Amino acid sequence: MAKILVVDDDNSIVLVLQHLLTREGHSVSVAYNGKEGLSAAQQDRPDLIILDLMMPEIDGITVSGILFQDPALRRTPVLILTAKGPAARNILDLVPNVRLYMEKPFDPPELLKNVQRLLAAPAA
Q1: Rounded to 10 degrees, what is the CA torsion of 78, 6, 59, 33?
Q2: Each residue of 64-87: pLDDT tens digit?
Q3: β-pairing, 27-31 with 78-82?
Q4: Neighbours of 106 (CB within 10 A)
Q5: Which of 9, 29, 41, 110 is deepest in the core (most CB within 10 A)?
């Protein structure tokens, strides 16, 4: 299956996502802040990145922008998973590799459906 990187500073969210995604057969790596997330993305070259917006070190918007500047990662889809609310939806217009936005708390079946959709979509 796919390699998925989860970047979130909330350990409980990371554990839930790790459980859901590995149960579906995906390989999951994790990072707990933006700086770790960038390093993990550059090293592991994931098929999909699930990214929080509000994190220590480097926020998710900045991480998305840096990923988009990297030729090896610019086509990697990013799913934003955040507690920021509807006002943060404009991230979809700001960074081209951000393909989907979901709010916390999230519905696990909906998240899995969106993950499958992003993995099946052609690279933009």
Answers
A1: -160
A2: 999 999 999 999 999 999 887 766
A3: unpaired
A4: 17
A5: 41
The closest of 89, 117, 116, 104 to 14, measured between CA atoms, is: 104
Higher pLDDT, 82 or 22: 22
Query: What is the extent of the structural domain holding 32?
Result: 3-120
Report how far apart, in Å, the C-alpha atoms of 87 and of each of 8, 21, 60 are. Answer: 19, 27, 15
Q: Mean pLDDT across the stretch 10-35?
A: 98
Split into its structural domains, the chain has a count of 1
pTM: 0.94
Single-letter amino acid code for the residue at 121: A
CA 104 – CA 91 distance, rounded (Å) = 16
Q: What type of residue is 20?
A: L
54: domain CATH number?
A: 3.40.50.2300
Residue that the structure tokens 């699930």 belong to: 50
Residue percentage of the chain with pLDDT more than 70: 94
Q: How many residues does the chain have?
A: 124
